[in-house]
Amino acid sequence: MSATKTAADPRNRAGNLYVYGVTWAGRGSARGQGVGDTRVGLLEHGELAAIVSPVGRGPLRAKRRDLLRHSDVLQHAFAHAPVLPLRFGTVLGSDDAVVDDLLAARHEELVSLLQRFERTSELRLRANFVERAVLAEIVQEDKQVARLREAMRTASDADPRRIQLGEAVAGALNAMRAAAADEIVASLAQHAIDMRIEEPHDALEVVRASFLVENRKVRGLERAAEALAARHQRITFDLVGPMPPHSFVSLTPQQRG
Known about the structure:
Elements: E1 16-24, E2 41-45, E3 48-55, H1 64-78, E4 84-85, E5 91-92, H2 95-104, H3 107-116, E6 120-129, H4 131-141, H5 143-151, H6 161-189, E7 194-198, E8 205-214, H7 218-231, E9 235-243
Antiparallel strand pairs: 1-3, 1-4, 1-5, 2-3, 6-8, 6-9, 7-8
Helix pairs in contact: 4-5, 5-6, 6-7
């Protein structure tokens, strides 16, 4: 099959095309300004459509404005149909390359993925301890920490008990984080089809996770997160979404030799 023009025709045989993601032909929507302030459109091939915009041939730098444009384009498309997002910076040399190296080369896989993610959304959660609150709780509940902390008020900087205090606080914090993370993940997983859990990025991060949720169950997961936030005053909850399934799809076009 050949590529099909759309109302916002992005065909760019003479230059590169930036590819945001893949959606259904006939249902997909693309509009507005994309990366590099160029017009976004759809390039269709059979059942599939690539969300694209023309870009220059020079290197593409990860500017904040373009990162936001990438996300905004995908979010708009996602409001109309399921979207398989590509990573930021995916560029192919022409409309033929988009068709041959992506839409045609992976046709069955892309159709299967779009069917799988129909009527689903990703929600991302970051939960972090409030440092002052959690340390105060550790001092209150752990007698060893409280005793060492009191002793350090008049101790020298070289006192070896400072290391002992640090280790005791770290151990207590790890135990509290593990218990809180287990509760949070277990509570939210009940509303999800799938999930991805990342390792904590620092000592105060409790959970960094992505949940794949049926659209009809999104509000249930949001309410569960709200209940957790109300119960755990020493933890901040940041829930983002609904959004395309960024954490559950990894697409890389096949490059021509």
